[in-house]
Known about the structure:
This protein is mostly helical and 168 residues long. It has helices spanning 4-36, 40-53, 57-76, 86-116, 126-166. Helices cover 83% and strands 0% of the residues. It is elongated and about 65 Å long. It comes from Sphaerisporangium rufum.
Amino acid sequence: xPDAVPEISLLAAVLATGLSAGLFHAFFYAIMPALxxxxxxxxxxxxxxxxxxxxxxxxxxxxxxxxxxxLVAVISHLGAPWRPVLPxxxxxxxxxxxxxxxxxxxxxxxxxxxxxxxxxxxxxDLAAVRAEFERPWVRWNTVRTALNIAAFGCLAWALLLHxxxxxx
Length: 168
């Protein structure tokens, strides 16, 4: 394996994970608390718009890149000289995979149900649609945020250890 792959893959994993963690954390501390203060119509409208516009290449690169780059980092650190780095890289990978699993199993289905509820101007019971969505979505966003922040910390530590081993 080329000499730069372990370092570059670990750096890419840290960056993708950090960007994902930052996005999910922004929902945790700013976006959802702000939306909590809005009426049902505004809440449903804004969340439907967010759920549509977030599906773009930038989000995909970070969301999918975090576990993929973590996997490459783990594979590239399997040799004996990387023994101190490997457990941290593996932990980052496992936490990133768990974040993806939570997102796919818990947040995405709620996003899809909210979208299927239709145009907020035609929804008969906006309060019920919001209630079905908001609390569970926020709870699972908190879980994926914690997983992603922990993954970021593990991968950042792995990168630091990698640097110490290479004298960088």
